[in-house]
Amino acid sequence: MKHLILALSLDVAAPVQAHSAPAQGGTMVINLLGPITSDSMAELVRSAQDAVLTGLDEIQIRISSVGGKVYAARFAVNALAALPIKVTTVAMSDVSSSAVALYCAGQERYVAPGATIYLHQLTRFAERSAKTAAAQEREDRIVNAWYDGMLKGCLTDTADMSELSPYQDRDLILDDADIKRLGMANGDFRALRGKPYFGRAVNIVPRVSSSGSNGRL
What we know:
This protein is of the alpha/beta class. It has helices at 2-13, 38-54, 70-81, 98-104, 133-153, 161-164, 176-181, and strands at 27-33, 58-65, 86-96, 108-111, 116-119, 172-174, 202-204.
């Protein structure tokens, strides 16, 4: 009986060994249909982390989004970059504003027939108080520099940024031919049919904000 009690005590005291997830391989599909929000980006990152724990090779983010919160997009882009997994993005229809930064975060980027990228000046603060204006203006410069950096990273030739830079003054729409020509898409959409997919797709459909006349943020 003493031996049994001693054995149980040793078992309880022993540290729990971490078991690595079995390497399943394959690609997880994440469908993002809606705006960039804190909730939608948290769900996106959680799904990506689950893919890592499952032992998958890749996540494929299929995007149809009017854009949304720039800070939420920055969180997702940085969180995805910190994960040891390949990130592929696909422009499935309208990819606008801050959603373009998420699209550009893909190591491989694809564009579906008829999909578009919509660029416009980033808008973040509706009004400014005198004591916070300087800090907010500096934050605007930081955010715009980050966004421009994401766009440049999407181009085959950074000199082509001159073609995109007018978005600061007027709305700019790129069709699928433009997206391919500029190198923003660096893969053939038809190649996606050959991917080894794993499990069911994760669908992220955040609630659409009623603000704005055209749905873009």
